[in-house]
Amino acid sequence: MAPFYKRFAENVTQQVNLLHDRAEGECIHRDDLMQMVGDAVTVSTLDALCGPHLLRLNPDFLHDFWVFDRNLQTYLQGIPWLLAPMAYMARKRVLKAVQIWQQHARDNFDDSAIGPDGDDPFWGTSFFRERHDMFLEMDGFDHEAIASEDFGAIWASRNSITAAFWAIFEVYRDPKLLASVRSELEPCIQKDDNGHIHFDINHLLRLPILQAVYAETLRLRMHFYIVRMPDRVDINIRDWIIPRRKVIVALTTVAHMDATAWDTGANNEHRVDQFWAGRFLRYPAGQRTDRSGVEKQTSDATSPTAPTFSTKHVDGAWIPYGGGPRQCPGRHFAKRQILLTTALFVTLFDCDMLGGAENMGEDFSLKGFGGGVSHPVGKVPVRMYARGVSG
């Protein structure tokens, strides 16, 4: 995943820096913070994953991608086309877009295009190129079927993109947490010759407060079903018998909202249905934390009063990626994507939330619940200001 992440990091860093350049000296209004973050991150993810030609050949793909995502339950419930024509047209267009991209790759790719990292500009990651060859060897797979399978892999990136929005949203709406995250990020800022900032992901992976924001975002906002089937023997769990060849379905939300498994503060002031980064921060004995999970702002991770980030104390309760050998293979990239995107936005922009957006909740309707990271219940209008950043 390293070449893939490197391309993503370079692209999203450029996207957000250019957005900052355009905003300098003026206030910019956005109808929806989710769309603002989503556009920048989705473009960077798709370019890193599929190469530049998917979006170049299909300029409306970004819009249709999110229409498809918003209508996931429409397809899963088998609602007739007649009752949801816009949803089905969006699905038809995204699948056609993938077919167009892959036909272009078949027509133009040769081995000389493969770079030293194994990827190429036509297929993007070697993942798609190798899958394509593998599927063609299987009975019943044609180019249309391959495009459908590959769009499923592309669509799966929506979880980390939506999680990045939620992390940014939560940091912006808590001034103490925002100040603490910025203090932690400040020593990590680097600038290039154009005055643009960038971050070394290895530094971000050592920041406890930023990682706590990431972990709490997934605890609170990830809702999906873990499906398993014991295929050899019956399973005995606390005197409950799960027969072999029977399907088990478990919802992550149940574990993530179990008040007996989670720290809710000294006086139970941080309910499990509310965001609190302090659940994942461990402090030296005797220290207490405030609402943001940070007692004292410090940019020195080696300070004796600095917190440490940990998920060990909630093993089995924090399961946003599933568990065991079938847990999400993209979890390491997802963490890097969320940390970097959050770091860029909160460093480069100040944000005023408008129209009560600071109290925005999740969409728990069956329109999207259970498909992964939740969407907000509505739009999040904001006023953004470019920040001056030293480094």
From TrEMBL:
Signal peptide range: none
Entry keyword annotation includes Transmembrane helix: no
Q: Which UniProt keywords apply?
A: Heme, Iron, Metal-binding
- Pfam families reported in the protein's UniProt record: p450 (PF00067)
Q: State the source organism's domain of life.
A: Eukaryota
**Classification via SUPFAM superfamilies:** Cytochrome P450 (SSF48264)
Q: Where is the composition biased (Basic and acidic residues)?
A: 288-298
Tell me the segments the record calls region Disordered.
288-307
Which co-factors does it depend on? heme
User: Which InterPro entries has this protein been placed in?
Assistant: CYP450_sterol_14alpha_dmase, Cyt_P450, Cyt_P450_E_grp-IV, Cyt_P450_sf
Q: Which family is this sequence assigned to? A: Belongs to the cytochrome P450 family.
Q: What is this protein called?
A: Cytochrome P450
